[in-house]
Fold:
Amino acid sequence: ETMKSVTGLADMEKRVADTLQVQRVIIVPENSDRYSWVKKELGRACVQQMKEMLVPDDIVAVAGGTTLADVAEMMTPDSNFNNVTFVPARGGLGEKVEIQANTISSTMATKANGKYRLLHVPDQLSKETRESLVLEPGIKELLRSIRHAKMVVHGVGAASTMAERRETKEETLDTLEQKQAVAEAFGYYFDKSGHIVHKEKTIGLQLDDLQENQTVVTVAGGASKGEAITAYMKYRPSDVLITDEGASQAILGLL
Ligand code: BG6
Structure:
């Protein structure tokens, strides 16, 4: 029985990898929309990947969200995490402190016995302030670390869920509706063809700065995120996708 379901998931991983053109897909059983323990399993699988792919002295940039918070919760030390630095990928996006990238990178670092650096920038910034902040030596240095990150770990959300959860301006909500946004990642919103339709203004990682040699690990599960994951992967297929059966069924059009 157990063997059968493991084989079933391996087959599903291949089909999802083909559909999304993602090199490596890891699927954990069940649907995180239904059970919260499934998100912890996504976290555990992600920590395992990080242990396999990182080497001492690497820099890892992490995004926020409840899924990444579970990755942090499942983090344990490893010899490969020696002197690894965890940095937040982007500045504030209007989220609660517990699920902000800053909080998550410091939790991960503490649990991994690694190092961390924080990005102290308010969520709403005028263009002028942003432009002068990025010239501050401390921030400049951190932005350099983000650009040199060997790995970027992030979640994906359904556009409407994310826009509601954050303090999103009325004007932005209108744009998202008009342009039929379905996915969100790092504060960027995408339509179902994977085109960027809106970008929250904060400093830090800009998606078009991502280099070929940086490993992008996407962690997102739940049937409700199937459409969002599919759309986001059209923008740029990640190197690794860690997801669950629920999202996979939606991605494969089985629901
Ligand atoms: C945000 C990240 O904080 O969380 C996004 O910046 C991601 O990349 C979102 O889409 C996902 O949130 P959750 O709670 O569904 O994991």
In short: The chain has a mean pLDDT of 95. Residues 63-67, 93, 95, 154-157, 162, 184-187 surround 6-O-phosphono-beta-D-glucopyranose (CB under 6 Å).
